[in-house]
Design brief:
0% strand, 4 helices, elongated
């Protein structure tokens, strides 16, 4: 019974690392390349490669699905995803141009600029 519970917790931990890495990869993919430079971080390509490798390694490290001998590499995947989500994502969010969670061109009330009638 204890072994089954330990196996379940072990699986849940590695699955959580995989989900975290995929979240970081998707978030990096949806940000514009200029936001990374404006935020003073490395390039979008760098973060896509890093988080993509982290997601792939985390997937392979899941004990039931992948190769159990590589499960220690999931720690590196977790570190890469956490660094992106905690350090890079908040730095580039203001420069993401109104994406979800970004400030973009919203006015002081956070509702955006009101539509204008007419034209020039």
């Amino acid at each position: 019974m204890i072994v089954a519970l330990q196996t379940l917790v072990y699986f849940a931990f590695y699955l959580a690392v995989f989900v975290l890495a995929v979240w970081a990869l998707i978030d990096a993919a949806t940000r514009p390349p200029g936001a990374f430079a404006s935020g003073g971080k490395r390039t979008k390509r760098f973060w896509l490669v890093l988080t993509g490798a982290a997601a792939a390694i985390a997937f392979v490290a899941i004990p039931i699905i992948g190769i159990g001998q590589l499960s220690f590499l999931a720690l590196g995947s977790a570190v890469a995803a956490i660094v992106y989500l905690v350090d890079v994502r908040p730095a580039i969010r203001p420069y993401s141009g109104g994406g979800r969670g970004g400030r973009g061109r919203r006015g002081p009330g956070g509702r955006g600029t009101p539509p204008t009638r007419g034209g020039w």
